[in-house]
Amino acid sequence: MTNLKFRVMVPLAIALISLTCSASLRAETEPRSKPLEVGDKADNFTLQSLGHKEFTLFKHLKKGPVVLLVLRGYPGYQCPVCTRQAGDYLAHAEKFAELNAQVVMIYPGPSEELQARAEEFLGDRTMPENFHFLIDPDYEFTNQYALRWDEPRETAYPSTFVLDQEGLVKLAVISHSHGGRTKASDSLKALGKEPKE
């Protein structure tokens, strides 16, 4: 009798575990219905740098908090507001490093020519060790995070998310215009550091 129970229960348990695992995988890859808000948990994603190195969010959160900057990519020109914002964050790289925080800049767009356009945007800037410049081919991340600005000559809503080490959102700023960007000081405050200018 015990043997019969074992033969019935084990396949049932395996089936339940499989269903649970596949449901959590689907939840991780399905697009969000609305962008992240303060208090939400960020979804995992994997993108590549210009040097073809993989960046997986959850792996990097183990090292410390993460600031996600979603840029506009190339809507027919290199966005001057994105250029200024990237420069501001790079100028504060040491302050982010002091907090063990990583800054991730995401450059979205159609996969064709995206690498070349991203290289053009970056120019001769070098990324500090705690900065990552990632490309988002065909808006995979942008769609997953519900940030696609699907209008002529638009790409993604410029956005900033500050995530603690658990992946919880401490700051969420989504601009529905070309302006309205966060400054590095805004993200540093969300990380608990009052910047001295």
What does this structure look like?
The chain has 197 residues and is an alpha/beta fold. The protein has two domains: 30 residues; 159 residues, Glutaredoxin (3-Layer(aba) Sandwich), CATH 3.40.30.10. Helices cover 37% and strands 19% of the residues. The chain is built from seven helices and seven strands, in the order αββαβααβαβαββα. Strands 2-1-5-4-3-6-7 form a seven-stranded mixed β-sheet. The longest helix is centred in the first third of the chain and has 28 residues. The N and C termini lie far apart (75 Å). About 10% of the residues have low confidence.
For the termini, the CA-CA separation is 75 Å
How does the overall form come out from the CA principal axes? globular
How confident overall, as mean pLDDT? 87
Helix/strand-derived category reads alpha/beta
CATH class category label of the largest domain: Alpha Beta
Strand percent estimate:
15-25%
Low-confidence stretches: 10-28
Total strands: the figure is 7
> Superfamily at the CATH H level of the largest domain?
Glutaredoxin
Helix share of residues?
Answer: 25-40%
What is the number of independent domains? 2
Structure in a nutshell:
The chain is α/β, with parallel strands linked by helices and 197 residues long. It is built from 7 helices and 7 strands, in the order αββαβααβαβαββα. It has helices spanning 2-29, 57-61, 80-91, 93-98, 114-122, 140-144, 184-190, and strands at 46-49, 54-56, 66-70, 102-109, 131-137, 159-163, 169-174.
